[in-house]
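User: Can you predict the 3D structure for this chain?
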Amino acid sequence: MSENKGQLHAGHVSFAFNLESYVIEVHHLEPLSATGERETKIEMLISLCPTCHRIAHLRSTPYSVEEIKGIRGG
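Assistant: Here is the predicted structure, written as C-alpha cells:
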C-alpha cells in the first residue's frame, strides 16, 4: 500500500506469482463519480495492491489508506 501520492510504490505484497514484477492497481483518492471529472491529476492517485484496492471499495465512500491499514491489521 502506498501513501506516496503520485509515486509508484508497493509497500507490501498480498500474494505471490511466478512473475518478474508485482501486480498493482491505481486508486483515485477522489472517486471520479464524486467529482464529475473525466481527468485526474497524478497527485490524486495512489498505488494499491489488488487486495487493498478491493477493500477500499467495499463501501460507497472508499476507505482511506489509514482505514485500510486498520482493517488489514497494520
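The radius of gyration is 13 Å. The beta strands are 25-28, 45-48.
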